[in-house]
Design a protein that fits this description.
13 helices, 8-stranded mixed β-sheet, 37 strands, single chain, alpha+beta, 7-stranded antiparallel β-sheet
């Protein structure tokens, strides 16, 4: 079907005047915003009905445009599904006398959580078969599984809307009974005290969804009598509760983008008062772990931009008592650490690459695990046991399927517990190539691009290339293996991951240089990487595609406003594109906690800067590339109305005949579909968009 044969939905205009700092913006599509009550109400008012009808019209348009490719989509889905071992299971991990296993059965969408007592030959006890729980729900997520130290009770969390507002319930693992008590509107996390009858949990603000209160629940008492033990009143902070690996302390953490704070309580005394470890200070961050008589702190204290490890006596915890354990290094980012009885394990990043460092407490050994690929991803994996010489870590790369490896830190022996199976009989690691190249950004900074492609793919101006990035919150996208990506690589695509500023790929400064009043560096880096790939004849503008989601969707919106001529097709998934309006509205979930990332537009300097790149505000009358925009109606991270308004404005102003489509999952939120196969169907839709454009099919 030709796109001209399908009628494009044209959204109604209802001009709304938005004024700030004497600047007036006219938002013709402000009416698309619905409250949670409107979305969830069984009786739809006129506005709600109008919004849903518009979203459904966009879905119908998408279906008509892509109808010709439905058979191919299904084939692609079956191809990707065929690489997955359906009856798969995780590597068992041991905790408190039990081995815990997550497994899937053939044909099932959801996992089964089970355990075995003592050894792996023991009888399996199924804790949760999520497939049974999910019956009758369009979306179902079970998480937050937390088992009491006597192994008899489990707290678990469920979300059936995909808004990340979890219900907490309790299951008796001896009798199988699920208690009637339900705690609503939580983050999903919980922590047992050592008495096996008390647990702590975090409640969200019902409007903003900010995690703001810690409560204590005692078994056998009504949830209405739960005690509020902490209220985080600063709207730019969230809070959480956790337990030290030593099982000694319950810890309440408070966090913003640039500041943290921790309080602790003896886990044997759950009704006691929490003690402040170190009061919050602007730009002071620290994460805490416990070992013997000390707290260990991953912190940026003393201008340690790339973080360092410090310790302090449990008896004296304020910052003047902290002493260095692993000093700050200019060339190495200290990302995390794990404490074992005889060993300290450090996760570091140097020149963009992960490193795992192992150091004995008695200082007789200090060494790095060897990794020899040009680009890869390696991470310490779980490790709930404290008194062990074995560390578990994961390793994979663009060409190496994921492995779970047990490494004996004492004798340095390695045991590969599991390597991801790629079924179908076609995958061979040696058929793919990966490399890392460096583009020069407009300000002279070197930006890494990780590439992977089939060995038979010829690299020239006719080669299709998909460029991906995120570039926000300091999150670094790993160079990891993907079975679904093979469907693109086997059809001649190159996949390029651009490690742009806004991540921490090259350390904390790399993040700082891509946020707040430096945010445009994120967009410039991506564009400059695109130009580099074109200049070096890896591809050309006719064959270059780009994709990003959430804050990466903002990236997509920015680059198509700045340099639309560089790309043949774009997918913006759950895109954060109405930045200025969202950041001015502190009733929208999670807004106030974002000020340290984007800036607070209530201040004119930030207002002007954000507006200068906000994709929705910068849409112009000009040509845009082919675009597919996706969203979830119940998304709590990026509200559905941002992409809905964006596409309406693009349709109004763009001057080309290229494709412009919006697909809304009316049942899902930020993460998309919940079942493992439903998620594959969404990937098949995305890949079909790129493949259809590249093969110049009639769309």
């Amino acid at each position: 079907m030709k796109s001209s044969d399908a009628k494009q939905p044209i959204a109604e205009k209802q001009p709304a005047k938005l004024e700030k700092h004497n600047d007036v913006r006219i938002d013709n599509y402000f009416w698309m915003r619905l409250s949670d009550e409107q979305k969830l109400s069984e009786v739809k008012d006129e506005q709600t009905q109008k919004v849903i009808e518009y979203l459904e019209a966009e879905n119908t348009y998408y279906d008509k445009i892509t109808d010709f490719s439905k058979t191919f989509q299904e084939e692609l889905f079956e191809e990707m599904k065929g690489r997955i071992k359906e009856d798969d299971s995780s590597v068992p991990y041991k905790k408190n006398g039990y081995y815990y296993i997550t497994r899937f059965e053939i044909g099932s969408q959801y996992p089964i959580y089970s355990r075995k007592k003592g050894d792996l030959n023991a009888e399996e006890q199924v804790i949760f078969n999520v497939n049974e729980f999910a019956k009758g729900f369009d979306y179902y997520q079970l998480g937050g599984l937390n088992i009491s130290s006597d192994n008899k009770l489990a707290v678990f969390a469920t979300d059936t809307v995909s808004r990340r507002q979890y219900f907490l319930r309790i299951k008796n693992l001896e009798t199988g009974e699920i208690y009637k008590d339900i705690i609503d509107n939580t983050t999903g996390g919980s922590v047992w005290a050592n008495d096996n009858k008390t647990f702590f949990y975090t409640k969200k603000n019902p409007v903003t969804l900010r995690s703001e209160k810690i409560f204590r629940h005692v078994l056998g008492t009504p949830t209405s009598e739960d005690v509020e033990v902490y209220h985080e009143k600063d709207e730019t902070f969230g809070t959480y509760v956790t337990k030290s690996k030593s099982e000694k302390y319950i810890i309440i953490g408070s966090y913003s983008t640039l500041s943290t704070e921790a309080q602790y309580l003896d886990a044997d005394n759950p009704t006691g008062e929490f003690t402040m470890l170190q009061e919050r200070e602007k730009d002071l961050e620290y994460n805490v772990a416990h070992y013997k008589d000390h707290f260990y702190l991953l912190t940026n204290k003393d201008n340690a931009t790339n973080f360092k490890l410090m310790k302090t006596s449990v008896a004296k915890t304020s910052k003047e008592n902290w002493v260095d354990v692993i000093p700050h290094r200019e060339d190495t980012l200290l990302e995390d650490f794990s404490i074992f009885k005889d060993y300290l394990v450090l996760e570091e990043r140097t020149n963009g690459l992960n490193k795992i460092r192992i150091k004995r407490w008695d200082e007789t050994e200090d060494y790095y695990l060897p990794f020899d690929e040009e680009t890869y991803s390696a991470n310490v994996y779980g490790n709930p046991e404290f008194d062990t010489d074995v560390i578990r870590y994961s390793y994979n790369s663009f060409t190496t399927p994921s492995s779970v490896i047990d490494f004996n830190m004492d004798d340095k022996s390695k045991n590969i517990k599991k390597e991801q199976e790629v079924l179908g009989g076609k995958f061979k690691k040696e058929n793919y190539k990966s490399e890392r190249i460096w583009a020069t950004a407009r300000d002279g900074k070197k930006v890494a691009i990780s590439l992977v492609y089939h060995k038979d793919t010829k690299l020239n101006e006719n080669t299709p290339l998909l460029q991906y990035a995120y570039g926000s919150y300091g999150y670094t996208i790993p160079d990891s293996f993907s079975t679904t990506r093979l469907s693109l690589l086997d059809r001649g695509f190159v996949y390029a991951l651009a490690h742009i500023r806004g991540s921490e790929y090259l350390g904390r400064n790399w993040y700082d240089d891509g946020k707040m009043l430096n945010k445009k560096n994120t967009f410039y880096d991506f564009i400059d990487c695109s130009k580099f790939l074109i200049d070096q004849k890896y591809t050309s503008a006719k064959h270059l595609y780009a994709m990003g989601g959430s804050a990466g969707g903002l990236l997509m919106g920015a680059i198509v406003n700045m340099n639309p001529e560089l790309y043949n097709g774009i997918i913006a998934a759950v895109p954060f594109v109405d930045v200025i309006s969202t950041m001015l509205d502190d009733s929208i979930p999670l807004t106030t906690g974002e000020y340290d990332e984007w800036g607070n537009p209530n201040e004119k300097e930030y207002y002007d800067y954000i507006k200068s790149y906000s994709p929705y505000d910068q849409v112009e009358a000009k040509d845009y590339p082919n675009m597919l925009i996706t969203t979830g109606f119940h998304d709590s991270q990026v509200q559905y109305w941002e992409p809905a308004k964006w596409i309406a404005k693009l349709r109004e102003l763009k001057t080309d005949n290229n494709l412009l489509m919006l697909h809304t999952n009316l049942e899902a939120g930020h993460g998309g579909a919940s079942g493992r196969f439903e998620a594959l169907k969404e990937t098949a839709k995305d890949y079909t968009f790129f493949l259809a454009l590249e093969n110049k099919l009639e769309i």
